[in-house]
Design a protein that fits this description.
294 residues, mainly alpha, 15 helices, 2 strands, binds geranylgeranyl diphosphate
């Protein structure tokens, strides 16, 4: 299978599973919350994080079906973070994944609850994983909690809020982004290995290095797209960083240096996995993100 075919095949497994995990309507009066959660979760998106979970599982020789609940759980957490990030009290955005943000399509309170619901559903989904040991499930749940929590993505968001309208150093920006964006990507790599039952230090270090390098390259490219991307292709508003006077990689380094760093970090991610058998997909995935337009 080519890279594009494998990517398509992974997404074709992830999306119906995600939808099924979120289809728990009861017919009672609160079903609108499922509608809101699915509105955001099933709105497309690259599905990068769940694809990485499945592919690290495959790299480790595991059964990707066993990794699927953890992949979906991670995508639920990612979608919750996007819904909350778009709220008026956060980034205040109108467009996400090419459609009105959750609070625009529904209302603010429903969007808060849809995010809360997705975050909670993630842990329910992970804890109900079948065919893995309780120890594996628990380990995956801990990875999810740590990555999404206060020493992870939430901490990064707090730093992000404190970084508006002032110039921060490159080190501060790297820390902020490694928490805000990097933690979930690193978790994706680790989850795939753990779901496959590969938990030796060497494997996990390899997975973490790939996730960290890829995460930073991904975020630098994201900052570049806020300048050189277009709203229709990206499916979200461009030019927001400059408006909120945020320190970004392009504002601190310039576009050319950003391009250089994306290429360098990507090659470091590639290096991390290239000694492994069957690493072709993850190598191509990393390289395909260097010039992504959405
Ligand atoms: C708890 C109130 C409250 C808010 C939490 C944690 C948080 C808000 C926000 C951080 C999440 C965030 C927006 C991180 C930026 C990472 C990033 C580049 C997201 C876009 O990821 P893609 O490009 O998106 O993979 P798709 O739509 O393709 O899945």
């Amino acid at each position: 299978m080519t890279f594009a075919e494998q990517l398509k095949a992974d997404i074709a497994v992830i999306e119906p599973a995600l939808e099924q995990f979120l289809s728990r309507e009861t017919g009672e009066g609160y079903d609108r919350i499922f509608e809101a959660a699915k509105y955001s979760a099933m709105a497309g998106g690259k599905r990068l994080r769940p694809v990485i979970v499945l592919e690290f599982c495959r790299l480790c020789g595991g059964d990707t079906q066993k990794a699927l609940p953890f992949a979906c759980a991670l995508e639920m957490i990612h979608t919750y973070s996007l819904i909350h990030d778009d709220l008026p009290c956060m980034d205040n955005d109108d467009l996400r994944r090419g459609r009105p943000t959750c609070h625009k399509a529904f209302d603010e309170a429903t969007a808060v609850l849809a995010g809360d619901g997705l975050l909670t559903a993630a842990f329910e989904t992970a804890s109900a994983a079948e065919g893995v040991s309780a120890e594996t499930a628990l380990r995956c749940i801990r990875i999810l909690g740590q990555a999404a929590g206060m020493n992870g993505m939430i901490g990064g968001q707090v730093l992000d809020m404190g970084a508006e309208h002032r110039r921060i150093s490159l080190d501060e920006l790297r820390l902020l982004q490694s928490l805000k964006t990097g933690c979930l990507l690193r978790a994706a790599c680790e989850l795939g290995c753990v779901a496959a039952g590969k938990t030796d230090d060497e494997t996990l270090a390899m997975a973490r290095t790939y996730g960290e390098k890829l995460g930073l390259a991904f975020q630098i490219r994201d900052d570049m797209l806020d300048i050189e991307g277009d709203t229709a292709t990206l499916g979200k508003t461009v030019g927001k960083d400059e408006k909120s006077e945020k320190s970004t990689f392009p504002s601190l380094l310039g576009m050319e240096e950003c391009r250089r760093q994306v290429a360098g970090l990507t090659e470091q991610a590639v290096q991390a996995v290239s000694g492994q058998e069957n690493s072709a997909f993850l190598v191509e995935l990393a390289r395909s993100l260097t010039d992504r337009m959405n």
